């Protein structure tokens, strides 16, 4: 398991805010998270967990103890660099690790997309979700249904879209190549009131997809920012 709270030193809960640690699955979405915060005037330090999407997917299926220890080590590095807050800019990572437990252990204020989904769920009767992989979709589903057991949830996984984002495929080409407009149409035809972009890579093509669907697209990033700064 991760290092115990005491071994990280008493008083961690009193650490100054300092820069924000951005944790994400790969260097690409970590950079996207730091750029998002930087554009809003916050100093952010990147802490990618894996080298690429395939490695990140494998990490999410590693034993829970290994995942907890690995992310705990990363958060310890963030503390040593003066961070008092952390933004988990990755949906699937958020569902694969017990971040509330790590927040208690480290004293860091840790914000994840799952917090946003808890607030979002009661506002809808039917939602569509596109996630990077089944692990991410499962974590989002669990949080949404815990917050609104009556929610009708429709889901899909699109790791190839993540790989396209990593490769820098132009957004319009990506939407066409991965048939995302048709997928949005399927969600719409099934009664979805909105489509959750359940991967932090996906705002990359949000505008291109929005131009080809009337279904509202939900990006949790701005609400995560509110939670991060509401201290």
Descriptors:
231 residues, alpha/beta, four-stranded parallel β-sheet, 12 helices, 49% helix, 15% strand, globular, disordered N terminus
Explain the overall architecture.
The protein is an alpha/beta fold and 231 residues long. 49% of the residues lie in helices and 15% in strands. The strands form two sheets. A four-stranded parallel beta sheet has the order 2-1-3-4, sandwiched between helices. A four-stranded parallel beta sheet has the order 6-5-7-8, with helices on both faces. Helix 7 (134-147) links the parallel strand 5 and strand 6 (152-157). Helix 6 crosses helix 7 (134-147). It is globular.
Set out the fold topology.
Layout: E1 20-24, H1 27-38, E2 44-48, H2 53-60, H3 64-80, E3 85-88, H4 91-96, H5 99-106, E4 109-111, H6 113-120, E5 126-131, H7 134-147, E6 152-157, H8 159-167, H9 171-177, H10 180-189, E7 195-198, H11 206-210, E8 217-218, H12 221-229
Parallel strand pairs: 1-2, 1-3, 3-4, 5-6, 5-7, 7-8
Give start-end ranges of low-pLDDT stretches.
1-16
Inertia-based shape = globular
Strand runs, count: 8
Q: How many angstroms does the end-to-end distance come to?
A: 29 Å
- As a percent range, the share of helical residues equals 40-55%
Global mean pLDDT: 90
Largest sheet: spatial strand order: 2-1-3-4
Q: Strand content of the residues, in percent?
A: 15-25%
Topology pattern, helix = H, strand = E: EHEHHEHHEHEHEHHHEHEH
Structural class of the secondary elements? alpha/beta
Count of discrete alpha- or pi-helical segments spanning 4 or more residues: 12
Which sheet architecture does the biggest sheet show? 4 strands, parallel
The Cα radius of gyration reads 17 Å
């Amino acid at each position: 398991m991760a290092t115990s709270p005491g071994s990280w030193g008493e008083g961690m809960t009193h650490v100054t805010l300092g820069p924000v640690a951005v944790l994400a699955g790969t260097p690409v979405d970590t950079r996207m998270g730091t750029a998002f915060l930087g554009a809003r005037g916050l100093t952010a330090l990147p802490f990618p967990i894996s080298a690429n999407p395939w490695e990140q997917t494998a990490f999410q299926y590693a034993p829970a103890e290994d995942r907890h220890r690995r992310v705990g080590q990363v958060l310890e590095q963030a503390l040593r660099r003066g961070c008092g807050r952390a933004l988990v800019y990755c949906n699937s990572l958020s569902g694969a690790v017990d971040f509330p437990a790590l927040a208690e252990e480290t004293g860091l204020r840790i914000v994840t997309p799952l917090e946003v989904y808890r607030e979002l769920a009661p506002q809808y009767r039917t939602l569509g979700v596109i996630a990077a992989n089944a692990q991410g979709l499962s974590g989002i589903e669990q949080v949404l249904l815990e917050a609104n057991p009556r929610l009708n949830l429709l889901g899909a996984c699109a790791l190839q879209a993540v790989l396209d984002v990593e490769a820098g495929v132009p957004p319009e080409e990506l939407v066409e190549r991965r048939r995302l407009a048709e997928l949005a149409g399927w969600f719409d035809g099934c009664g979805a009131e909105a489509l959750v972009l359940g991967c932090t890579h996906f705002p990359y093509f949000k505008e291109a997809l929005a131009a080809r669907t009337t279904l509202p697209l939900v990006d949790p990033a701005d609400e995560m920012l509110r939670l991060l700064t509401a201290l």
